Amino acid sequence: MFDIGFLEICLIAVIALLVIGPDKLPGAARTAGLWVGRIRNFISTVKQDVDRELKLQEMQEAIKHSEQHVHQIVEDMGTGMEKINQPIADPFDNEYSSKNLADNESKEVETKPLDSPDSNKTSSDNPAKISS
Length: 132
Known about the structure:
Blueprint: H1 6-20, H2 25-85, H3 98-111, H4 127-131
């Protein structure tokens, strides 16, 4: 972590022995060890919390992405259901269908005036009508 080698540790131990003294050195070393352990434990806990928060954030983003995807699918299904629920147009229901042709012919027959029994003949059959 701090990149301290064996020589640096020995130098710190000698200085501590001179400053603290041989009587209090074991208690000071024990106390320093406890503090180092607590600091390591604290750092480990902070790392775990940060990792947990990052994973939580990633999971929340994945959930949001999934929700958007689900909403898009629901919208697509809704439009598909609207298309399915629309009435189906009869492909033969146009002006040229046999039903409509029969209706049109009956209307034409009803609207033609009946002048004479010869009115059903064509103009070529009746030469008198051509000259009139």
